[in-house]
Amino acid sequence: MTQFSPNSPTPTDTLLTVPQALEALKISRTHFYRLRGEGKIKTLQLGARTLVPQREISRLINEALGEAS
Asked: In angstroms, what CA-CA distances link 44 with 2, 14, 32, 34?
């Protein structure tokens, strides 16, 4: 049996690099940084690295699917 501590990351807490986020969203780097500049996607800065929480990718996809219906 696997035990999870409260501090263990869950799949929604996974952090993606910008290239991984671009692949997941199937968008260009320019479009990604435009979305970030408009406040439509939140990122984290750890040192020189920009990371994107997986939940932000999921939220953006869900919003796009909601607009498509």
From this structure: 29, 12, 14, 16
Nearest to 44 by CA among 10, 67, 21, 27: 21
Place of tokens 């990718």: 57
CA distance 54 to 56: 5
Q: For 28-60, write each residue's pLDDT tens digit.
A: 999 999 999 999 999 999 999 999 999 999 999
Please indicate, yes or no, whether the overall pTM of this predicted structure exceeds 0.90: no
**Coil, strand or helix: which one is 48?**
coil
Amino acid at 40: K
User: How big is the CA angle at 39 (ends 37 and 43), to the nearest 5 degrees?
Assistant: 85
Give the pLDDT confidence of 21-31 residue by residue, as tens digits.
Answer: 999 999 999 99
